[in-house]
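To whoever is on call:

I kicked off a structure prediction for a single chain this morning and the downstream step that reads the tokens threw a length-mismatch warning. I double-checked the sequence; it's 119 residues and nothing unusual in it as far as I can see. Pasting both halves so you can look.
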Amino acid sequence: MDFDKQDILRPLAADTRPFGLILATAVAEKQRSGASLGYSHRDYCGMGMEYNEGVYCYGELWDGGLDRPMTFDKVEAFIAWLTAQSTASLARLEDDAFYQGNQVITRERLEDFLLQQSF
């Protein structure tokens, strides 16, 4: 079976529906409780989100840690930003081919994150 990266990228690019206020607020609340969103393994781990010392962060994860994240000092700013985002806008479709769709934040990942138990 031939692998065509476009088969993965097409659905990501097509999902342009903004995440919206309800989902963004729920994600911010879960992060504030200490949960972070992202993979943790060697090398590039995709995109992640966390709340750390009063700051909401979004950025690339390398070896399980955020590298030069975009930061939001106020919950309202983070929620406003995430509300306007979509799977397509966070799929990194304009980046180098390696990053396109590679372990990115999607609506499905955010919804799964909300269902996970925090320990």
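Update from on-call: the warning came from a stale cache, not from the record. Cleared it. Sanity check on the structure: The beta strands are 44-52, 55-62, 65-72.
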